[in-house]
Design brief:
The structure is a single chain. By secondary structure, the chain is of the alpha+beta class. The protein is built from 16 helices and 33 strands. The longest helix has 19 residues.
């Protein structure tokens, strides 16, 4: 009773805590779980491996009562009698060392290495480094796990073939992710699920579609920005308690570590995905609401639970879930960083049917009409009989990601009251004004397909120059920006595009691209255009230079990956081997969005200006993010 038992091994620590009954810890992947219970209340703790300078750590949170004392015994198993006056005691273990931090101050310290991780009762982690006898402290940010920019869709019908509609909707969202696809349907009695790596057309064959019957369902497409490519990382994710919940998520949580330590109640995680953490945090809150108010209406229980969940989450999240005996449930983060839209149609019997998706481009083939955006901080429930109810769960202010309009979204989509196509046209008009000031001698304007076409059309019109399609795209090659590794991106570029000599030969060309992120594609395109006979190649980017990591679910987490990192515009131009380069200004970019929707006071343009709307991203977080990703995946054109 009142003991912590540590079983030591060559590479791992197995830890468990007890007031009455010891429960042996269970290891799964990069996580370690253990728990115990008493007659009075349930206790738990979770341990998780962290990588820092190639050393393996297990960070453990243990919850119990009492006052602090430690007694060490020698041997392979070391027992510490431990009762603390503080309710939260956090320990960190390394193969050859033990460090303990507590406000009680009565603790054993045994450490022969240079690094300790100490925790206090406010759950703030401090790193201490000893250098030449001096001590330096810094607060470390939570680590970000597998993140994604995904496409999500949920459909409620009164028929029995919702899988067909999900399939069509996912095809319209395929541009948002090409790594894996998943689908779950519900027929009123059971869930049926299919997910795997690959494109939508490859994952769902005729036999699978016949199996996925039901009138309500979810669909998801994803690409990974880091972490595994295993199909186990594909969504949707599922928990069977309470009720039975499937969930799909677009975005990225920035406080995943804190959520694991404080809010999972020893729930078992199968993956490193922040989406699975989100699902289990919501499941815990819903279980608590059901236990406290078992007779309440299930819709009220869900709204109350997600209100608690939203208060714990930080980062970006647009979520659609499927709850047994309730229906489709969707919610969006208070900043509205990632898009989520609502559509409606009336069937032949006059009954309402609903669709929730990342973009309203998915509505067209299905016959749904755009109703509105899901508001930031809002949750909606679409019941099994077709009724839609909503609640504003937390106070919110729309700060959508402006990179959605530049690169991620389809031009035929409208999000947050802004047409993507009209937004891109306006960027072209604004950029043309600055090109005129450069005084370049240009013969022809050529877009880099596909996203730059609207801007290139406006630039050509404003400059009174011919517009030509000089780069032919191979439609059977995926988008290089969302390919999971740099080598694959490089090999893909020349398969992706081919330069037409009849357009470029002897011409002074202005190439227009929607954005220049890593620079790999653009560098090779410039070389191709020169090989096709161009006498001069000028570059225009509809977006400003990307200089900062995007932590809200887009694959650009490292500054070193950006071609504009620590380079002036002229230096970038030289690296890309162009004769001239011009970027959109951040002010013009933001003004274009605010002009089209004056109700949006702020956009998240953090990848351009470093201003993160959630307010919890600092330099320490970004350093941890880079350390977790590793330094070997630099994707920009390398320094000279």
């Amino acid at each position: 009773p009142g003991q912590i038992i540590i079983l030591m091994s060559a590479r791992f620590w197995y830890c468990c805590s007890s007031s009455r009954v010891v429960v042996v810890a269970e290891k799964s992947g990069d996580r370690l779980y253990a728990g115990h219970s008493s007659s009075r209340k349930h206790h738990h703790f979770v341990a998780r491996r962290r990588r820092r300078r190639r050393r393996l750590w297990w960070c453990v949170r243990i919850i119990f009562d009492g006052s602090s004392s430690f007694e060490e015994e020698e041997g392979e198993m070391t027992t510490f009698s431990c009762t603390t006056a503080k309710p939260n005691l956090l320990l960190s273990f390394k193969t050859s060392s033990l460090a303990h931090g507590s406000a009680a101050g009565n603790a054993l310290r045994k450490n022969s290495n240079n690094y300790n991780y100490n925790y206090n009762n406010t759950n703030q982690r401090t790193q201490t480094k000893r250098t030449n006898g001096k001590t330096r402290r810094r607060h470390s940010a939570p680590r970000r796990d597998v993140t994604r920019a995904c496409g999500i869709i949920g459909v409620m019908t009164h028929g029995n073939r919702v899988s067909t509609e999900l399939y069509e909707g996912l095809l319209m969202l395929q541009h948002r992710g090409q790594d894996s696809a998943g689908m779950v349907t519900y027929d009123g009695s059971r869930f049926k699920e299919k997910k795997d790596n690959g494109l939508v057309k490859d994952v769902f064959d005729k036999r699978t579609m016949k199996y996925l019957d039901g009138n309500i369902g979810l669909g998801h497409v994803r690409y990974p920005t880091q972490g595994g490519l295993s199909a186990t990382e594909a969504q949707p994710f599922f928990v069977n308690s309470p009720l039975g919940i499937y969930l799909i998520h677009n975005g990225n949580l920035t406080n995943t570590d804190e959520l694991r330590l404080r809010h999972l109640n020893a729930r078992h995680m199968r993956t490193n995905s922040d989406s699975e953490v989100l699902l289990n945090v919501f499941a815990e809150d819903l279980q608590r609401e059901i236990n406290l108010h078992p007779l309440r209406d299930p819709n009220v229980q869900i709204f109350d639970a997600v209100t608690q969940t939203m208060q714990k989450l930080r980062g970006s999240y647009s979520v659609i879930s499927l709850v047994n005996d309730v229906g489709v449930f969707a919610f969006r983060d208070p900043n509205g960083i990632r898009p989520l839209v609502l559509g409606q149609r009336v069937n032949a019997d006059g009954k309402d049917e609903w669709c929730v998706a990342s973009e309203d481009a998915a509505f067209g083939p299905l016959g749904f009409k755009f109703v509105r955006d899901v508001n930031p901080g809002e949750a909606i429930i679409i019941t099994n009989d077709g009724k839609m109810v909503s609640r504003q769960c937390v106070s919110a202010s729309a700060c959508p990601c402006i990179f959605e309009y530049i690169y991620l979204a389809r031009p035929d989509s409208t999000m947050n009251g802004i047409s993507v196509y009209e937004f891109q046209l306006d960027l072209g008009r604004r950029l043309a004004h600055h090109i005129t000031e450069r005084g370049w001698d240009i013969d022809v304007v050529v877009p880099v397909p596909d996203g730059s076409r609207p801007s290139a059309i406006e630039i050509a019109s404003a400059l009174n120059l011919p517009y030509r399609e000089g780069l032919v795209k191979n439609r059977y090659v995926g988008r290089t920006f969302i390919m999971p590794d740099q080598r694959t991106r490089e090999l893909s570029v020349r398969r992706k595009l081919n330069a037409m000599r009849s357009v470029f030969n002897g011409q002074k060309v202005l190439l227009v691209d929607d954005s220049i992120v890593r620079g790999t594609t653009m560098n090779q395109i410039v070389n191709m255009v020169r090989d096709a006979g161009a006498s001069k190649v000028y570059l225009a980017s509809s977006a400003p230079p990307v200089r900062h990591p995007n932590v809200y679910g887009v694959d650009m987490p490292s500054r070193e990956e950006f071609v504009a990192h620590q380079r002036t515009e002229d230096e970038v131009c030289e690296v890309l081997a162009a004769d001239g380069l011009i970027y959109q200004t951040v002010d013009d970019l933001l003004q274009a969005g605010k002009t089209m929707n004056p109700n949006i006071g702020r956009f998240d343009a953090s990848c351009f200006d470093g201003d993160y709307v959630t307010g919890d991203i600092d330099e320490e977080y970004l350093e941890d993010l880079l350390a977790d990703r590793g330094l070997g995946k630099v994707g920009a054109v390398k320094s000279r």
